[in-house]
Please model this.
Amino acid sequence: MTYLAKPKLHHPSLQKNCVGFTRRDYEGKISTLCAGCGHDSISAAIVQACWELDIEPHRVAKLSGIGCSSKTPDYFLGQSHGFNTVHGRMPSVLTGANLANRELLYLGVSGDGDSASIGIGQFVHAIRRGVNMVYIVENNGVYGLTKGQFSATADQGSTSKRGVVNADSPVDLVGLALQLGASFVARGFSGDKPQLVPLIKAAIRHRGAAFIDVISPCVAFNNHAGSTKSYEYVREHNAAVNRIDVIEPRAEIVVDYAAGEVVDVPQHDGSVLRLRKLDAGYDAGDRIAAMNQVHAHQARGEVLTGLLYLDPQAEDLHAHLQTVPQSLNALAEAQLCPGAEALERINAGLR
Ligand SMILES: Cc1ncc(C[n+]2csc(CCOP(=O)(O)OP(=O)(O)O)c2C)c(N)n1
Ligand code: SF4
Ligand SMILES: [Mg+2]
Model:
């Protein structure tokens, strides 16, 4: 069964957000993933983030490829627009949709197989073009849906459930996103919701290509000793560089993280990203330093998490291409088809 509708009963006392929705209004169908799969925790974090940010569900377009991870958009935001593409093709479909209508919030959900193997070319170009989106990879180091083959993000030397050693070097999507010019790069862990929800909220508020690699253990095929993507391994080797909070212009939010240096970063929309540093030497505004830190921690077998890089002044693909501000479906025929004279002028300019 892949379609299990949830009962629509809402308790009248359920809290509503500023746009009149309860958390349940941001849910989707009942998940058919394995009990304990990290992907379900990420769906719950997306629901929480959208509810807290008062996002109207019909303003969201969720897109995915193929895989257990790519099935998850069916399990959250059931009132939003959705597109389940061919394996690895989510980024180009998202780019096209975004160019046609910039007014929606684009949420791309993918897997490590979907984005680091068959779809790596698509991933690379969507990131380097600065498409305004939240791109989440639910990274479990295996092809969960096709029964646990190593994916390209599996660490060299890690073992499969049957004890086979992975000889290949891993693709590090965080390192790649930094190198490609992503203006928001973070890594989270599906088992750390207090860290993940603010990361997703911050990514939603960011204008530009926001990439979040979420380590998301596959309990069926990659949660054993010898795996570097198991719950136990990530809990033991998690090195968080910061904790963040998103402060909306209208709401006061009390930050309750442990003492440490605090940095406020204003965003385009007037909201403020409050970064509480856990690692005093970490600078999330320095791309090169972030790349070095990611590699240094990786060499020590640690999983660096938190907001790793942010450019609050980033511009997106629409700014690069100088597109019209309206969505294409709002343009009248005369604007879409300006006639033979206009075409002649364009052609003359190219001669
Ligand atoms: C063109 C194409 N090639 C191969 C497949 C088979 N296939 C389905 S899902 C998948 C990998 C999924 O891995 P990942 O993206 O990591 O998702 P997970 O299931 O681990 O969440 C593959 C190879 C396919 N569906 N389509
Ligand atoms: S096979 Fe793995 S990735 Fe797929 S639902 Fe089960 S635990 Fe999750
Ligand atoms: Mg996977």
Q: What stands out?
A: The pocket of iron/sulfur cluster (ligand 2) is lined by residues 33-34, 37, 39, 68, 140, 144-145, 218-221 (CB under 6 Å).
